[in-house]
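> example.struct
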């Protein structure tokens, strides 16, 4: 475990994944997003949400704010290895909120004009306990955005910073996968305490 006094040296936010890992992740994301049904992806998202909430709600608040240096998970940027559970929830809150807007726009045939990179969705280092409710709210709002769409096979796509153009179905799959990745991160944070 690393303390605040000995900040680890990590790659800067937005540095991305190792090239070979990014290549195979790109193939996996696009292939699985094409094959998975909206209902399957929605069920995965809901399961990941409930598991994350179960993990964090069972821990005392002082533990949730403790930053821990973890071994890098495949799919996780180096700069994200020294977070607390609350920072992880803040990151998920930001992503779920933004991607909900992207999916709504794509399903209306509009491409969001702004480009967002991974450095733009990093959490606050000073995030507080209230992020738990905000994370749960934005996750429920994300699920609601998906539910009201007639189809996620949108006529337009929007580029992911690592995986290129994704339609609304691709973004939906990406968010469910992303929730699972950060659930594993939270587990590693707790194991490292």
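> example.seq
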């Amino acid at each position: 475990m690393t303390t605040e006094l000995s900040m680890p040296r990590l790659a800067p936010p937005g540095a991305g994944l190792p090239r070979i890992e990014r290549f195979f992740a790109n193939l996996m994301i696009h292939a699985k997003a094409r094959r998975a049904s909206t209902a399957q992806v929605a069920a995965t998202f809901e399961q990941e949400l409930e598991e994350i909430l179960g993990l964090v709600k069972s821990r005392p608040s002082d533990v949730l704010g403790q930053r821990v240096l973890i071994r890098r998970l495949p799919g996780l940027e180096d700069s994200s290895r020294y977070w607390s559970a609350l920072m992880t929830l803040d990151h998920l809150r930001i992503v779920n909120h933004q991607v909900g807007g992207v999916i709504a726009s794509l399903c209306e045939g509009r491409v969001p004009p702004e480009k967002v990179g991974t450095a733009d969705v990093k959490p606050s280092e000073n995030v507080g306990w209230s992020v738990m409710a905000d994370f749960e709210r934005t996750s429920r709002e994300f699920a609601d955005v998906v539910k009201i769409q007639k189809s996620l096979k949108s006529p337009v796509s929007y580029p992911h910073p690592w995986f290129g153009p994704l339609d609304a179905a691709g973004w939906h799959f990406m968010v469910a996968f992303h929730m699972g990745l950060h659930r594993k991160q939270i587990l590693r944070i707790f194991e490292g305490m």
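> remarks
The chain has one domain: 41-191.
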